From TrEMBL:
It comes from Zestomonas insulae. PANTHER family: FAD DEPENDENT OXIDOREDUCTASE DOMAIN-CONTAINING PROTEIN, SARCOSINE DEHYDROGENASE-RELATED. Transmembrane segments: none annotated. This is FAD-binding oxidoreductase. Residues 39-392 form the FAD dependent oxidoreductase domain. It comes from the Bacteria. InterPro entries: FAD-dep_OxRdtase, FAD/NAD-bd_sf. Gene3D superfamilies: D-Amino Acid Oxidase, subunit A, domain 2 (3.30.9.10), FAD/NAD(P)-binding domain (3.50.50.60). Keywords: Oxidoreductase.
Length: 443
């Protein structure tokens, strides 16, 4: 049953997602007009920009934030809502650059990042359906064995939250599917309503004195000791600039744009389920995610809809019908939903770097220009960490975390703007074929 599917709308308003339909506050900020002076100008009204603004305002800086569309319009307001520990992928690969102590510090920062979100929500009393509980799902015996290693490493790092391995015969305690061979429960990760979080943080930033401007696309940046940021109807003059556009950077800064690849990710939301249905699908109301390259991730909303996402597209082309594309993936996990209506479908762009580590630093040629981008689909916590690290660096505070991220070199994708997406699509196809036909007992 596919009746009443709501088509996504990519415009100056928010995408027509479940999140946009269930916001708990309405905020409207004016477009930039005339000339504004600030200590720091931030481009981008997602989690990176908002949290950098909050951190700077708490340190006494005057801040002007420009958003081309609406606050939370991009990935921050459209993502799967999964708040998961960690930053980056395979952090041990950076030991040659950072040393073993540096890698360990990155791992600890990945745990601290979730705590930053927790504290921000508590401090500002943001209503965003925060729910604790997450489970990694093993598709293969190899995945399951890696969970045992993950658990031991987290314990060695001093992780304070409950971790529990789920054996194959226990899987129905966490998910009503026969697709998986084990899991790892983490009670220090969870899920939330991301757009309500973004709007709550925007309200907090405004209360701290941050000037927020919507419908203010940046048309030009004049770099120098004083940065001048031009929008369609106004200009911001600032001592420092933060570029926090991620996958929606477009051509604003070619140096940063070449290091981040926009990739499409998609979500569908069912009609509200009965309490019995919901408990059958996800008995403990956790967020869940599998381990495949083209991963599935899903959870229940506060009104008991199944939100099912994944299917990252590197080709630059969105499916013509997201619901038709995603529904078979959902039914492969939950065939019992064959007669369940899909009420919402939407997509958006995530930013991916070649090494899958968030890119946080400053431009070498313009040392008063900072940036944060390329969260590779795990930005809900990493964006909050980036805001803290950027504010520390701008304030001149000692920031071991900022220095670590800034040390890591990031490859510029080959092929230029037109070829880098097709080239990466071919690369990811190779990984999927290897995953499907390689060893490890794939289901």
């Amino acid at each position: 049953m596919n009746a009443r599917v709501r088509q996504p709308v990519h415009s100056a308003d928010h995408a027509a997602s479940y999140y946009a339909a269930s916001v708990n506050r309405q905020l409207d900020f004016p477009p930039l007009g005339g000339e504004v002076q600030a200590d720091v100008c931030i481009i981008g009204g997602g989690f990176s920009g908002l949290n950098t603004a909050i951190e700077l305002a708490e340190r006494g800086f005057s801040v002007a934030l420009l958003e081309a569309h609406r606050i939370g319009w991009g990935a921050s307001g459209r993502n799967g809502g999964q708040l998961i520990r960690g930053v980056g992928h395979d952090l041990d690969q950076f030991a040659g650059v950072l040393g073993s102590d540096g890698v360990r510090e990155l791992k600890l920062l990945g745990l601290e990042a979730v705590e930053l979100v927790r504290r921000r929500i508590e401090h500002f009393a943001i209503d965003c359906d925060l729910t604790w509980g997450y489970c990694d799902l093993a598709n293969t015996a190899k995945d399951f064995a890696s969970f045992l290693d993950d658990r031991e490493e987290l314990r060695e790092l001093g992780y304070r939250h409950e971790l529990r391995v789920v054996r194959p015969d226990e899987m129905h305690q966490v998910v009503g599917s026969d697709r998986y061979v084990g899991g790892l429960i983490d009670m220090g990760s969870g899920h939330l309503h991301p757009l309500n979080l973004a709007l709550g943080e925007a309200a907090a930033a405004q209360a701290l004195g941050v000037r927020l401007f919507e419908h203010s696309p940046v048309t030009r940046i004049d770099y120098g000791a004083e940065v001048r940021v031009h929008s369609t109807q106004g200009t911001v003059r600032a001592k420092h600039l933060v570029i926090a556009c991620n996958a929606y950077l477009n051509d604003l800064n070619p140096e940063l744009g070449g290091k981040v690849l926009p990739a499409g990710s998609y979500v569908i939301a069912t009609e509200p389920l009965s309490l019995a249905q919901a408990r059958t699908l996800i008995p403990q109301n956790m967020a869940l995610c599998d381990q495949r390259v083209a991963l599935d991730y899903y959870r229940l909303s506060a009104d008991r809809r199944l939100l099912f996402g994944g299917a990252c597209h590197y080709s630059g082309r969105d499916p013509a019908d997201i619901a038709a594309y995603m529904r078979p993936k959902m039914l492969a996990v939950f065939p019992q939903l064959a007669n369940t209506r899909i009420d919402f479908q939407w997509g958006g762009m995530i930013g991916i770097g070649a090494n899958r580590l968030p890119q946080i630093g400053r431009l070498h040629a313009q040392p008063n220009v900072y940036y944060a981008q390329a969260y590779a689909g795990h930005g809900l916590n990493a964006t909050h960490l980036a805001g803290r690290l950027l504010a520390e660096a701008i304030a001149g505070q000692e920031s071991r975390g900022f220095d670590l991220f800034a040390q890591v070199p990031h490859l510029t994708f080959p092929g230029g703007k037109l070829l880098r997406s097709p080239l990466l699509a071919l690369g990811m196809l190779w990984y999927r074929l290897k995953e499907r036909f390689g060893s490890g007992g794939a289901l």
